[in-house]
């Protein structure tokens, strides 16, 4: 483990302590670990940059061609978290750099459960029910709650979380529509692979579960949102930036029968003056609805295992760019 055991860690300012067990675990396993506050600080150290074999950093940080070219011996790029929207995966693949993330089963299934939770909370108008109790046990003039059973659910993006959500809502006898540019796994029986326009116009519930990248940034603007049914439910738990938040807020003001539940936003924390905050039909949570004890506990061990695989010349369990494996140096 001597030739490829040099590991650089660039911490996130918002999660500094999270990286401590990763650094300690790698050092204890015999890796040569150096830590930096920023990617530019790493690049500015010629010896560290030239020897770095594996880079561990949050996937929200921008690791593009400039950064990759400054790390000539890099063989692996690891985000301990699921999101890798800051990584230029194409540039990494072209340079023979394997990309891994924290898509552990605990993380995937926690996010799937949380997505179902928000969907049901929106359908059953949970916030309004709590307000009724706080206001003195008043009863609404008409029933706003709706059942999930028999509805048409559209899933935008069909990675591991999308697949886990589909498995969990199947007992509700829903009709499943999936929109994704590259369908890599078979769909459940009865599900349809459709284009985005068809999904938006036919779905009672729209779940945004796609990764944030150049193809999906701004995917749902005013025109797309206006295609949704008059009483649709929109749930966004993958990444902010896919939905135009200003257009969504305007649509929710025009169409109060539409409901939305968002856990992620284009800019986080969500601005205090965001128009989404004042909308009674919107459930907002601070990018943490799917963060469970189990999911958080799984991330550091998974990151350590991925790095140790990489320095040993083995592909880790979770590979985000499998196309690189044909040329990736093993050994």
From TrEMBL:
Record key words, sorted: NAD, Oxidoreductase
Signal sequence, start to end: none
Alphabetical list of InterPro entries matching this protein: D-2-hydroxyacid_DH, D-isomer_2_OHA_DH_cat_dom, D-isomer_DH_NAD-bd, NAD(P)-bd_dom_sf
Domain of life the protein comes from: Bacteria
Domain D-isomer specific 2-hydroxyacid dehydrogenase catalytic: 35-317
MF-aspect GO terms: NAD binding; oxidoreductase activity, acting on the CH-OH group of donors, NAD or NADP as acceptor
Domain D-isomer specific 2-hydroxyacid dehydrogenase NAD-binding: 117-287
Pfam families documented for this protein: 2-Hacid_dh, 2-Hacid_dh_C
Family stated for the protein in its record: Belongs to the D-isomer specific 2-hydroxyacid dehydrogenase family.
Protein name as catalogued: D-3-phosphoglycerate dehydrogenase,NAD-binding protein
């Amino acid at each position: 483990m001597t030739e490829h055991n040099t590991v650089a860690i660039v911490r996130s300012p918002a999660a500094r302590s999270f990286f401590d067990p990763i650094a300690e675990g790698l050092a204890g396993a015999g890796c040569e670990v150096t830590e930096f506050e920023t990617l530019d600080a790493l690049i500015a150290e010629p010896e560290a940059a030239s020897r770095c074999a594996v880079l561990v950093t949050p996937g929200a940080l921008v690791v593009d061609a400039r950064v990759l070219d400054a790390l000539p011996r890099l063989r692996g790029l690891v985000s301990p978290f699921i999101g890798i929207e800051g990584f230029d995966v194409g540039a990494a693949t072209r340079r023979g750099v394997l990309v891994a993330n924290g898509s552990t089963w605990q993380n995937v299934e926690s996010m799937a459960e949380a997505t179902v939770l928000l969907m049901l909370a929106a359908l059953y108008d949970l916030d309004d029910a709590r307000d009724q109790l706080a206001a003195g046990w008043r009863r609404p003039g008409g029933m706003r709650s709706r059942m999930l059973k028999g509805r048409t659910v559209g899933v935008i993006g069909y990675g591991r979380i999308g697949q886990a959500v589909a498995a969990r809502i199947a007992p509700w006898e829903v009709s499943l529509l999936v929109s994704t540019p590259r369908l890599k796994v078979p769909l459940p029986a009865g599900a349809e692979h459709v284009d985005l326009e068809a999904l938006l116009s036919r779905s009672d519930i729209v779940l945004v579960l796609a990764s944030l990248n150049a193809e999906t940034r701004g995917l749902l603007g005013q025109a797309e949102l206006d295609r949704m049914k008059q009483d649709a439910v929109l749930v966004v738990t993958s990444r902010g930036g896919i939905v135009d938040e200003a257009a969504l807020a305007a649509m929710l003001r025009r169409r109060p029968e539409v409901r939305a539940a968002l856990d992620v936003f284009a800019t986080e924390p969500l601005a205090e003056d965001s128009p989404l905050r004042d909308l009674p039909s919107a459930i907002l949570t601070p990018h943490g609805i799917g963060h469970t004890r189990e999911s958080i506990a799984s991330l550091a061990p998974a990151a350590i295992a991925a790095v140790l695989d990489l320095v040993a010349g083995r592909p880790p369990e979770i590979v985000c760019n499998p196309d690189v494996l044909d040329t990736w140096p093993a050994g």
